[in-house]
Amino acid sequence: MKNNLLKPIILAFGTTILLSACTGETKNTTVTDSSMTDSTQMATLKPAGPAPEWGKTIRPEMQVIIEKLSSYGDQPIETLSAADARKNHTPTDAVMDLAKQNNIAVPMPKVDTTGKDIDADNGKVHLRIYTPKVGNGPYPLIVYYHGGGFVIANVDVYHASAQALAEQVGAIVVSVAYRLAPENKFPTAHNDAFAAYEWAVKNAVDLKADPAKIAVAGESAGGNLAANVSIMARNKHIMLPVHEVLIYPIAQEDMNTESYKMYANAKPLNKAMMGWFTEKYLNSTIEAQDPKISLVDANLSGLPSTTIITAEIDPLHDDGVMLADKLKAAGVKVNLKNYEGVTHEFFGMSLLVPEAKAAQAYVADQLKAAFK
């Protein structure tokens, strides 16, 4: 399976470029100025054609990545079986190939990685653990959940995001390879996510982590899982995360929001793919109304402070906004930040995309403040 072949490439090239954190940020802000980060090495990355119809405001660096992704000629994911979809090229492939083609230098990793398999319901879940090379701990700990609609992708594809969190926060990151659908239907991924969090809480000291400083983070489907972990921790009366970072999370069932309409044909995520993910993960369409999937219908009271990151050119943009509103109404402290000109999946692209660098720095700031 192609995604499994990414590891040696990503471990060599997937280190993110670290920037000083942005300051003076306010709640509910939209980032429009890419000059806040150094983009000199990206100056040669110019789009080959005009901006796509579905994303007229797309930033040049983001467009180059989308053009590269399209150049592979893969069949649309929503037309494939899950097994074949996992063989498609990923946005990570596009970023890594562009870096190599343009001789973009990448710093050496500032973390060490190890693997660990843990027990979960009727099976095993693999964890990739990132530990800073600097210091002796105890470090704060972040449990991270990758995206992919509960069906595709893995910890390799999202390696850059997990590594960036570890390096910029100075934290141990436990990246969770929860089991995928349709081989493992709802709520397997949700249960695996919580099992990994429980394991991290119980084993924090052995990991050289501070058991009082544990946060959760996730992208897309992983953002949904991270929020669910906080809810389950509250319900089961175990230690709550001190903070949760939800990056363009799946948060509700309605695929007719304004962002779904505006960006129905966007890349790398479109409306048809979201329908395909839903069909593959859920046992029936009625389960889309389950509050584990439709977070906006869940009891959100008593959850930890939350950072939500959204992308402008993303069907899930409004999911993040709606969830932020619901969390605030439930009395949760929320920082919502939107990045213009970028698409779903941008967060891990800091090697090429200035907005990703800025988003990573902002998230790191939020986590460091919560850990204090």
TrEMBL record:
<feature type="region of interest" description="Disordered">
    <location>
        <begin position="28"/>
        <end position="54"/>
    </location>
</feature>
<feature type="domain" description="Alpha/beta hydrolase fold-3">
    <location>
        <begin position="142"/>
        <end position="347"/>
    </location>
</feature>
<keyword id="KW-0732">Signal</keyword>
<dbReference type="GO" id="GO:0004771">
    <property type="term" value="F:sterol ester esterase activity"/>
</dbReference>
<dbReference type="GO" id="GO:0004806">
    <property type="term" value="F:triacylglycerol lipase activity"/>
</dbReference>
<dbReference type="InterPro" id="IPR013094">
    <property type="entry name" value="AB_hydrolase_3"/>
</dbReference>
<dbReference type="InterPro" id="IPR029058">
    <property type="entry name" value="AB_hydrolase_fold"/>
</dbReference>
<protein>
    <submittedName>
        <fullName>Acetyl esterase/lipase</fullName>
    </submittedName>
</protein>
<feature type="signal peptide">
    <location>
        <begin position="1"/>
        <end position="23"/>
    </location>
</feature>
<dbReference type="GO" id="GO:0005829">
    <property type="term" value="C:cytosol"/>
</dbReference>
<dbReference type="Pfam" id="PF07859">
    <property type="entry name" value="Abhydrolase_3"/>
</dbReference>
<dbReference type="GO" id="GO:0019433">
    <property type="term" value="P:triglyceride catabolic process"/>
</dbReference>
<feature type="compositionally biased region" description="Low complexity">
    <location>
        <begin position="29"/>
        <end position="44"/>
    </location>
</feature>
